[in-house]
Amino acid sequence: MSEIETTTTEEQEALPCFVRHHDAGGLCEEPGTIEVYGLRFCEAHGLEARLGAAMEAHGDAEDFFERFRSPHTLQPSSLVGRALEVAIDYTTAGCPDGEDYDRALALAYPNPPDDVRTRTLEWMLVEEPGYQSVEDYLLEDLMLTNKLLRLAYEDGATWMVERLEVERERLAAEAAVALEESKRRSGDRAPVQPGE
Ligand SMILES: [Zn+2]
Questions:
Q1: What H or E segment, with its residue span, contains residue 10?
Q2: pLDDT tens string 117-164
């Protein structure tokens, strides 16, 4: 069973998008035409969810194979080494581009509620140099939630998939605000001055 597919039947198209968290703008009433981990999404929310799921799955697969190249593991034979290279190339090549994901995130969550925008921007105001940025923190949590979603789906735990997806929508809305603000700051600062 494929976890990421586009549905086509009239019955499936009649069902609404799953997105519902308050922070994501509430219940989405667009028809659900893209299926990710058994949940249906509209075009915009579905593209973001699909790219996010694919990025996590490819990253996880790459991490799995990379472990065998660690100097702390048995040195593989030349044949195994070549097979490992092919496997890593395959998982890397299929991974969506990060900028494509950023664009999909912005399109899926273009206008989060004011309280989401306010608390995310207030959090960004107290960012300190040398620490992980709010944007990176949120995107990392999004990928972690994608991983938990995949594991729950593979385990057949539909109730957990639905619960995690709602939480993922909150993170996605905050991440969209942080990404937009980060890009605005980059634009304001360009060109970057030495020592900034
Ligand atoms: Zn939607």
A1: helix 10-13
A2: 999 999 999 988 888 899 999 999 999 999 999 999 999 999 999 999
Helix axes 158-189, 98-108, angle to 10 degrees: 100
Q: Is 195 exposed, middle or buried (0-12, 13-18, 19+ CB in 10 A)?
A: exposed
Ligand 1 center from residue 171 Cα (angstroms)? 15
Task: Tell me the domain boundaries of the chain.
Answer: 4-54+98-185
pLDDT by residue (tens digit) across 25-61? 899 999 999 999 999 999 999 999 999 999 999 999 9
Q: Tell me how far the alpha carbon of residue 41 lies from the centroid of ligand 1, in angstroms.
A: 5
Distance (Å) from CA 61 to ligand 1 centroid:
28
For residue 191, the CA-to-ligand 1 centroid distance in Å is 37
CA atoms of 83 and 76, how far apart (whole Å): 10
CA of 49 to the centre of ligand 1 (A): 10
Q: In terms of DSSP bridges, do strands 4-6 and 39-41 run parallel, antiparallel, or are they unpaired?
A: unpaired
Cα(44) to centroid(ligand 1), Å: 6
pTM over 0.85: no
pLDDT computed for residue 192 by the predictor: 47
156 C-alpha to center of ligand 1: Å?
23
Question: What six digits make up the tokens of 78?
Answer: 């030349």
Residue 103 CA to ligand 1 centre (angstroms): 16
